[in-house]
Design a protein that fits this description.
Helices cover 42% and strands 16% of the residues. The chain has 10 helices and 8 strands. It has helices at residues 19-35, 52-61, 89-94, 105-110, 115-127, 140-144, 148-159, 188-205, 222-229, 246-258; strands at 8-12, 42-46, 68-72, 97-102, 131-136, 170-174, 213-217, 236-239. Helix 3 links the parallel strand 3 (68-72) and strand 4 (97-102). Helix 1 (19-35) packs parallel to helix 2 (52-61), helix 5 (115-127) packs across helix 7 and helix 7 (148-159) packs parallel to helix 8. The longest helix is centred in the last third of the chain and has 18 residues, at 188-205. It is globular. The structure holds 2-phosphoglycolic acid. 2-phosphoglycolic acid (PGA) binds next to strand 8.
Length: 260
């Protein structure tokens, strides 16, 4: 049976990447996807903003623009203005991004981002025509206190705007904070249960939202990708560390292809 939702594998490069090696990695990724023939799942790379324009040029030259999308890692809630050091959603779109990650736990922790701010950023992303990848996830204390479902459900309903959200312009990433960059991913049963919870909650937040793609993120690597990607209600992965080198990212993409 054909899947209703196309899988999405997203690479979050965080604050890593210099021009020359980044261009070389992107060429490798474009060659891999080109050799595979058809694009069997969506792929998006979210590099630092400084690399969007050169990577778009790399993809265009390698014939990969249709198969690999680019995304930002954050945007401001305003479309322009006196906000030193920030980047606006229309700028990301202008630089070649089609997606933007919002509400990542590192932004929430490092910059005290609240659900209300994330919601305003989602609206800004939508005004610019970007697809927002909205991150939610509990920390270790919340999980141990048995509060994970409540925390994630609350973050979800508060981080999404009340109108204008569709399954086409939103992707949810469930990223348990304690699993990010730690090498310790959540257990399969916990991931499947949380994704089911998120999907039911989405269904209550708006008509058709249960069809949103829900990604898992947190120490996804070649060794666990196939198992995680085959779980119920998991529509893809948001990959940090393992997306930096195509040699490590490749088996994750291939795992998604293999279960198509
Ligand atoms: P990780 O990061 O894969 O390095 O754990 C995931 C993320 O933060 O998006």
């Amino acid at each position: 049976m054909a899947r209703i939702r196309r899988r999405l594998i997203a690479g979050n490069w965080k604050m890593h990447g210099r021009l020359k090696p980044a261009v070389a990695e992107m060429r490798r990724l474009a060659a891999l996807v080109r050799r595979a023939g058809r694009s069997r799942c969506d792929i998006v790379i979210c590099p630092p903003a400084s690399l969007l324009v050169p990577l778009r040029a790399t993809l265009a030259a390698a014939g990969g623009l249709r198969r690999i999308a680019l995304g930002g890692q954050d945007c401001h809630s305003a479309d322009a203005g006196a906000h030193t050091g920030d980047i606006a959603a229309p700028m990301l779109a202008d630089a070649g991004a089609r997606f933007v990650i919002l509400g990542h736990s590192e932004r929430r922790a490092d910059h005290a981002e609240t659900d209300a701010l994330v919601r305003a950023k989602v609206q800004a992303a939508h005004r610019a025509g970007l697809i927002a990848i909205v991150c939610v996830g509990e920390n270790l204390a919340e999980r141990e206190a048995g509060a994970a479902y409540r925390v994630v459900g609350r973050a979800l309903s508060r981080s999404l705007p009340a109108s204008g959200v569709t399954a086409a312009n939103i992707v949810i990433a469930y990223e348990p904070v304690w699993a990010i960059g730690t090498g310790r991913s959540a257990e399969s049963g916990d991931i499947a249960r949380m994704h089911g919870h998120i999907r039911r909650r989405l269904g209550r937040l708006g008509p058709g939202l249960e069809a949103c793609r829900i990604l898992y993120g947190g120490s996804v690597k070649p060794a666990n990708a196939a198992e995680i990607l085959s779980l119920a209600d998991v529509d893809g992965a948001l990959v940090g560390g393992a997306s930096l080198k195509i040699a490590e990212f490749r088996p994750i993409i291939e795992a998604a292809w293999a279960i198509e």
